[in-house]
Amino acid sequence: SRSSIASTKMVQVRRWEGPLPAQKQKMWMALAFVYVQVCGRAVVVPSPVVPAQRSSTLKPFLLQHRVKPVMKESSQSVERRHLFGSALVGCLALGMASGGMKDASVARKDQVQRSLVQQMKGMGDYEDLIAGRKQLLFQEALSGAPAQVVEVGIGTGVNLKYLKEAGVKSVVAVEPNEHFTALAAEAAQKAGLQLQVQAGNMEELPFKTASVDVLVATLVLCSVEDMEASIKEVHRVLKPGGCYIFTEHVEAESYPLKALQNLFSPAQELLAANCHLNREPQAMIRAVFGPSNVKADIWNVLGDEHEFAPHFLLSPTYSGFAVKR
């Protein structure tokens, strides 16, 4: 009857007035994120192994060892199709998932942290791309064997091997996500390092002023609550002459990548423990440490030719080190 049809339509309308159920929210947000990161999967050339010698500057490596991915499908039409497809799915996901997901409960936060562990475990191909650059960075920044080395946001422990190569014997880690502890301990054992992990965050480091020789924090400023406070806290705990080693993905300088980072950053923040795709820590690091005390470059992990390959949203990278004077 007409009345039954009308009532059915009213029910359908009411069902879509509010936010989607939690499971559907997660499904749509995950679909958008996975599509963006995986679409156009490419075969990449691993980052070259840098000889274990000290270099006087980061520039020669940037010029001589540029990572250039080789695409299975390199035509502009394929890249454009993936680009527009990911943008379309992202817009749909963000629209359907609206409705208060930022008001996360304790259970939701724990779930996101567990999910982040799985995401970082799956970032092996990204780490392969930046391995050569990281190795040179640690060689350049570290001199001798620093007594007190701290890593903030140690995650799965991917940087421990570089510290070991630089002569470091023990590391104190500050990690806000307890689910990374076992993985970091396993990486430390494999690298032959002593590791102590304690809970904490970059905005409030549990160390005395001027007590740390070296502080390492890679892919951390993207997710802290207060970026300026975090950088100032690093400066506080470093000894005079102490070194802050960083590698951070940053906002692109040009479109359309910059626009896509801004579009997908809200989804990334929800799914990857507050990781922002569009932050710019460069000016803050220079302001806190002084421009002459910062040695860093902005570079593209994927090069300029295939900027929409996997991890393209993380491609613009700011890496280097800053010394406290």
Q: Characteristics of this structure?
A:
325 residues; alpha/beta; 7-stranded mixed beta sheet; 11 helices; 7 strands; 44% helix; globular
How would you summarize the topology of this molecule?
Blueprint: H1 2-15, H2 22-38, H3 59-64, H4 76-96, H5 106-121, H6 124-141, E1 149-152, H7 160-165, E2 170-174, H8 181-191, E3 194-198, E4 212-218, H9 227-237, E5 238-249, H10 257-271, H11 282-289, E6 294-300, E7 316-323
Parallel strand pairs: 1-2, 1-4, 2-3, 4-5
Antiparallel strand pairs: 5-7, 6-7
Helix pairs in contact: 2-4, 2-10, 4-10, 9-11
Overall pLDDT: 76
- In total, how many beta strands? 7
| Quaternary organization | single chain
Strand content of the residues, in percent? Answer: 5-15%
Residues in helix, %: 40-55%
Shape field: globular
Radius of gyration: 22 Å
The major sheet is characterized as: 7 strands, mixed
Characterization of the model:
It is built from eleven helices and seven strands. It has helices at 2-15, 22-38, 59-64, 76-96, 106-121, 124-141, 160-165, 181-191, 227-237, 257-271, 282-289, and strands at residues 149-152, 170-174, 194-198, 212-218, 238-249, 294-300, 316-323. A seven-stranded mixed sheet has the order 3-2-1-4-5-7-6, sandwiched between helices. Helix 8 links the parallel strand 2 (170-174) and strand 3. It is globular, with a radius of gyration of 22 Å. The termini are far apart.
Summed up, what is this model?
With 325 residues, the chain is of the alpha/beta class. Helices cover 44% and strands 15% of the residues.
